Amino acid sequence: MRHRFVRLGLVRLGVVRLAAALAFLGGFVCAVAQELPNDKAESISGKKLDFPSALRGVVTTCVFGFGKDSADKVTVWLESLSSDNVNAWSIVNLESMPSGSRGVIRKTMTIGTPKNLLDRSLVISKDSKEWIRILEVTKLNMPVVVLFDREGNIVWKRQGTFSSSIADELKAKIAQLASK
Questions:
Q1: Which pLDDT tens digit goes with each residue over 2-26?
Q2: What is the pTM of this model?
Q3: Which helix (H) or strand (E) holds 174?
């Protein structure tokens, strides 16, 4: 009888160890999945920062665009979210654009962005393929709205033009994070 209890104890110990190993590996896989490129970014007002690491510490919403066809749609998102007091930033990746046209695009973005949002409108020009993969972009002309938690992990994302239903879903998720 005692051997059966010892055997059951060893089996339970084995199950606990297996569960611990799986939890460790699961955490490792999640950590790898959240590894984001850290790029030099510049606001269209000229301020430089490291993105996304400079935004850590607070819940942050970023609206990503890839190329000139998404820039106007990104601005609509940024204006709406900012008017609702959401900590929002726009990130337009111009890597796919010829380097000679990037200045013109930046100038157009400056003209089309309200002055109070110039510091929150970032331009990056590398790692676009990696960001497209991470954000699961399906249409390059559509922005992707992304919510980062305080640790800089992506916790929510949607692709599309501005809609109140997506904005409401985002705000609910922000409220949920704020209550933690």
A1: 454 444 443 343 433 433 333 333 3
A2: 0.77
A3: helix 164-178
Fold annotation for 39-178 = Glutaredoxin (3.40.30)
Helix, strand, coil percentages, rounded to 5, for the chain: 50, 20, 25
**Cα dihedral 94, 95, 98, 103 sign:** positive
Residue 112 sits at the vertex; the CA angle it makes with 86 and 146, to the nearest 5 degrees, is: 35
Q: How far apart are CA 131 and CA 122, in angstroms?
A: 14
For the chain, which residues make up each domain, given as ranges? Answer: 1-33, 39-178
Q: 48 near 42, Cβ under 8 Å?
A: yes
Note whether 62 and 146 are within 8 A (CB): yes
Calpha distance 105→153 (Å, rounded): 29
Distance in angstroms (rounded) separating the CA atoms of residues 11 and 18: 10
* Dihedral (Cα; 108, 112, 114, 116), 10-degree rounding: -20
- Can you count the helices (H) and strands (E) in the chain? 5, 7
CA distance 83 to 78: 8
Question: 131 to each of 23, 66, 89, 91, 166, how far by Cα in Å?
Answer: 27, 9, 16, 11, 21
pLDDT tens figures, 50-77? 999 988 999 999 999 986 688 789 989 9
Phi and psi, residue 157, nearest 5°: -160, 150
